[in-house]
């Protein structure tokens, strides 16, 4: 039985959110580690054509480096009007590792003058739990668990004035359910619609079932 889980992300904001989503697992005595705890600085080449493919690629890559059960996710903003971009390009939509501000301005530039009906968009996340062979006492070569979730809305004409560093696309999304900027949601509203936390909640149930075997 494993005693540690690695969160495979270098994004500090995403790391904090995933850690929060794993509190129930931590209460079971499982230690939650970050890449920085293991001094891992490398990154895989994200060659997947979908968020799901990239999430699995990252989980497998970091599980291979650490020999630990690993959780990795991939996700971003999908804008149908822009042929589903930025999609898997996400942080590298501009052809390089762009800053939050660059991504926000690039998105707005591509939608300049576009009417509200064509500004529909959604945030998607795909999350994998990857248990490598040497940490797997279930008799399987490896084990993977998967969840995904989306948040629907539309892209605003300007970013929210107080946006969270590390989540540039949230600064632009007005959430359908509340007709509010994502970053203007109350704590309770955020818990209700946060796609990563909702996906993690279901993933934790699956992991917990494995722990009880």
TrEMBL record:
It comes from the Bacteria. Keywords: Hydrolase. GO terms for molecular function: nucleoside triphosphate diphosphatase activity. Pfam families: Ham1p_like. InterPro entries: ITPase-like_fam, RdgB/HAM1. GO terms for biological process: nucleoside triphosphate catabolic process. This is Non-canonical purine NTP pyrophosphatase. It comes from Candidatus Roizmanbacteria bacterium RIFCSPLOWO2_01_FULL_35_13.
């Amino acid at each position: 039985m494993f005693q540690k889980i690695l969160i495979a992300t270098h994004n500090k904001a995403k790391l904090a959110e995933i850690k929060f989503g794993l509190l129930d697992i931590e209460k079971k005595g499982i230690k939650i580690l970050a890449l920085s705890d293991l001094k891992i600085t490398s990154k895989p080449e994200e060659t997947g054509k979908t968020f799901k493919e990239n999430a699995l690629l990252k989980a497998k890559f970091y599980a291979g480096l650490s020999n630990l059960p690993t959780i990795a996710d991939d996700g971003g903003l999908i804008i149908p009007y822009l042929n589903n971009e930025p999609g898997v390009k996400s942080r590298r939509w501009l052809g390089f590792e762009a800053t939050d501000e660059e991504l926000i301005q690039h998105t707005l530039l591509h939608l300049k003058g576009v009417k509200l009906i064509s500004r529909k968009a959604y945030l998607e996340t795909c999350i994998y739990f990857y248990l490598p062979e040497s940490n797997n006492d279930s008799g399987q070569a490896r084990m993977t668990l998967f969840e995904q979730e989306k948040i629907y809305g539309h892209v605003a004409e300007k970013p929210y004035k107080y946006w969270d560093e590390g989540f540039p696309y949230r600064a632009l999304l007005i959430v359908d359910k509340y007709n509010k900027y994502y970053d203007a949601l109350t704590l309770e509203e955020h818990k209700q619609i946060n796609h990563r936390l909702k996906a993690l909640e279901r993933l934790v149930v699956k992991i917990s079932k494995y722990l009880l075997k």
